[in-house]
Amino acid sequence: MSLLPALVMLPLSAALASTLLPLRWRGPLGVALAVLLAGVACGLLRTVVGDGPQAHALGGWAPPLGIALVADGLAAGMVVLTATVALPCALHAALGLRGEAVEDGFWPLFWFMWAALNGIWLSADLFNLYVGLELLGLAAVGLVALKGSAGALAAAMRYLLAALLGSLAYLIGVALLYAAWGSLALADLAGFMAEAGVAQSGSLTTLVALGLMSAGLLLKTALFPLHGWLPPAHGGALPPVSALLSALVIKASLYILMRLWIMAGPALTPLALGWLLGALGAAAVFWGGWMALRQARLKHLVAYSTVAQIGYLFLFFPLFGVANMDAARLAWDGTLLMLAAHALAKAGMFLAAGNLVLAVGSPHIADLTGISRFRPLSLMSFGLAGVSLMGLPPSAGFTAKWLLLQSALASGQWVWIMVLVGGGLLSAAYVFRVFRHAFVEGPARDRFASPPLALELSALALGSASIALGLVAQAPLEWLRIGSPLATGVP
Amino acid sequence: MKRYLLILLAALASLAVCAALALAVIERPEARTDLPRVVAHSTEHAGAPHPITAVLLDFRSYDTLLEVAVLLVAVVVALALREAQPDGPDRMGLDNPLLRAVMSWLLPLMVLVAAYLLWAGSTRPGGAFQAAAVLAAAGVLLRLAGVRLGGFAGERGARRLRALLVLGPAVFVAVGAGTALGGRAFLDYPADWAGGLILAIELALTLSIALALLSLFRLAPPQSDVERLPERRRRTRE
Amino acid sequence: MSATVLATDALYAWVGVLLCGLGLFGFIIHRHLLRRLLAFNVMGSGSFLLLVGLAQDGRGIDPVPQALVLTGIVVAVASTALALVIFRRWHRVSGESTLPEDV
Fold first, then answer.
1. What's the DSSP call for residue B29?
2. Which of C36, C83, C99 has its CB closest to that of A154?
3. What is the number of domains present in chain B?
């Protein structure tokens, strides 16, 4: 029996079950099932590393008639990353939300979101990706709206409008691609496009389709200047929700974008467009960093930091598009490591920030005064995550930046080096701003709420993982290349 | 002034999209695969004789499963938002004798139409979603006429509602798990069972989708407290 | 190719193009959330027409995009309903029918 459908169906069944179960069972069930799913995810990765990419034709119908689930190294890696981030978040939610009114909606939506994420990582069909994107978007919007306050509802509404417009643009692109090529399977399309070449008629239709799909996905990924919806949504949500949204949900649309560009090949994705995305990414790094520096509220600072960190991931497009094989490989490795590092670090940071906010009872950074003596563990998790975001050795953030830097050197695109260094300095500035307040010995207050230890440990686990990944990055990077275009020698 | 700029921007954006789409439509090449022929050829071996139903519930059944999940997400959010802040008394009913009189004629007819649509789905246009939409419309009419759907009131009723909402996707997943445990691909129906399994899935889906649509109508908070609007507005702005 | 540009089957696709443009226009200029939602639905219908209209011209009826559109409609219904639920709740809490602009 193949593991691929189980990775989508387990969380889906969990979503159905937790809609029905009594409230008090949902948390324990959530944690137990998250452990089980993490195990299945690792099993998939082991199979992929051992036997190469896996495929499963759903319903027994081979594409293009049916839908296939495909797990190459990248997809398996994302499945494992999802489990790694979601497990501590589930633990955090099980303890942190226990007995609160939001718990009723949280668990089903959490599981729907996980199912959608795994569905997207594994799907090899354009339209199925659309349904996955909608499932993910709606579940994420629901999680943001869960608090029910005016701020949360406005943020959810803004997020929903962006998500809907984005998926509609994607759907129009799917319609055009289906009209032009007659298939929805990614593998078919990649083959047709490579065969037809750029000169052939129909490349215009494909270009328009890819343009629309990319625009929609950029909106969903919140690349500058389309990021307006992200800070209120990620900054205002419950801590585990913010962590999941920042770490994983925005990566799903980026993942599809990367798959699309790789599918279309260099002929249909001109380097100039890659440069445009890179430039927007660079602008995101500086704008997001600058805005993070100016935030008064802790979680909004972390949310703007996400806007900035997304920018690095878009350096992939100019660097991967060059003919230089080494540069392309370094860009692939660097971007994916950056993605994983950011997922772990940002999830850890949001959970830690949630703990700090809970401890001081105020969302403002200025109120953190004196917290260092009372909640050192949460502050340390925040710091560990910060080290990775800044890109200091030996964190995964550092290794990722180092790889991207080498890629920039190898391809002669020097300008990105400035972005990597400047962005690191900006993140240092906003992380240290939090610490400055935290280490001030304040007369203001001496009573802090103390969140349960497990809340602090789940943040700590994620923060430490973002450091540890930097030390052992070699093997995961090799796994991620399995079945990628880099493995076959055509960048 | 700002308004004109916005209109200009909107006009430019939509014209650009229209132009790009027009170009794409004009320049589209002949498709490389003839998928309709593949569908026509494979429908014989599928569990439903109508090609669209075959695509929906056999070839691309996984899409349909996720689609029902999307609908369920909306209902879950509506339930969660509803329960976080209980609303005042329900004022949905229109006390209209004409509506009530017409209802007694319409209701049996609508249920009949829904049943027909579900049945017809296997050989001609129709199917679970269409049937569910008609059923949900009947429910909406009932509600407008002020009839309370008694089975879903109270705590037990709420649990019953949730169980029925989950039923459709649960049956779908269970069939998939069954085929997978039987050593086949996920949702690969055995040839002898295909028709029956698809019918079972469709029945369960019809019920769940109809209830989902009805719940979404029912759960959107009614407009009330109109006199307190200015106060609320001021509070949000502060 | 140019022979099929104005074929009757392609009419659906052309209407779809038009609706997409109209929907986008409405989505950008309106601030009232219900209007934006309506604009989104107009655009959605446009994309469904594109999906069905483009695929079937010249080749007869293609059941695949028709099934896709059915799936798409359910998804659109779900998204619209979710938006309405959040909108009504937002309206109830704040009394506003537009989003605050200062973010």
1. P
2. C99
3. 1
The complex scores an ipTM of 0.93
Q: Does a structural domain hold residue B120? A: yes
Domain boundaries, chain A: 270-491
Neighbours of A449 (CB within 10 A): 12
| Cβ pair A176:C50 closer than 8 A | yes
Question: Helix, strand, coil shares of chain A as percentages rounded to 5?
Answer: 80, 5, 20
Q: What is the pLDDT of residue B14?
A: 93
H/E run at residue A69 = strand A68-71
* CA closest to A168 among chain C residues: C44
**A204 CA: distance to closest CA in chain B (Å):** 6
Q: Which residues from chain B sit within 8 angstroms of residue A142, using beta carbons?
A: 73-74, 76-77, 80
DSSP secondary structure letters along A89-150: HHHHHHHHSTTSTTHHHHHHHHHHHHHHHHHHHHB-BHHHHHHHHHHHHHHHHHHHHTT-SH
CA distance A223 to chain B (A): 19
Nearest residue on chain A to B162, alpha-carbon basis: A20
Tell me the pLDDT band of B52, cut-offs 50, 70 and 90. confident
Helix (H) or strand (E) holding A384: helix A376-390
Report the pLDDT averaged over residues B168-189. 92
Give the angle subtended at the CA of A250 by the CAs of C74 and A480, to the nearest 5°: 110
Residue B231 maps to a domain: no
Mutation site, C64, C80, C90, interface B, largest B CB count within 10 A: C64
- The torsion of the CA quartet A245, A251, A254, A258, rounded to 10 degrees, works out to -170
Residues in chain C closer than 8 A to B11 (CB atoms): 25
Q: Which of A131, A176, A241, A249 is the best mutation test for B, with the most CBs of B within 10 A?
A: A131
Residues of A in contact with B33 (CB under 8 A): 64, 181-183, 188
Domain limits for position B55: 35-221
Q: What is the pLDDT of residue A491?
A: 37
Q: Chain centroid to CA A327: how far?
A: 23
Q: Which residues of chain A have pLDDT under 50?
A: 489-491
Query: Per the domain annotation, does B230 fall within a domain?
Result: no
C57 assigned to some structural domain: yes
CA distance A58 to A69: 7
- Contacting residues of C for B232, CB less than 8 Å apart: 93-95
Q: Which CATH number covers residue C48?
A: 1.10.287.3510
User: Is B73 inside any structural domain?
Assistant: yes
Coil vs helix vs strand at B186: coil
* Closest C-alpha among B55, B45, B54, B39 to residue B192: B45
- Best of B68, B70, B72, B73 to substitute, by most chain C Cβ atoms within 10 angstroms, is B70
Q: How many independent structural domains does chain C possess?
A: 1
CA-atom Rg of chain A in angstroms: 21
Q: The tokens of B19 are what?
A: 């132009």
State residue A447's pLDDT score: 66
Q: Answer yes or no: is pLDDT of B149 > 70.
A: no
Nearest CA distance, B216 vs chain C (angstrom): 6
**Percentage, residues of chain B above pLDDT 70:** 84
Mean pLDDT of chain B: 83
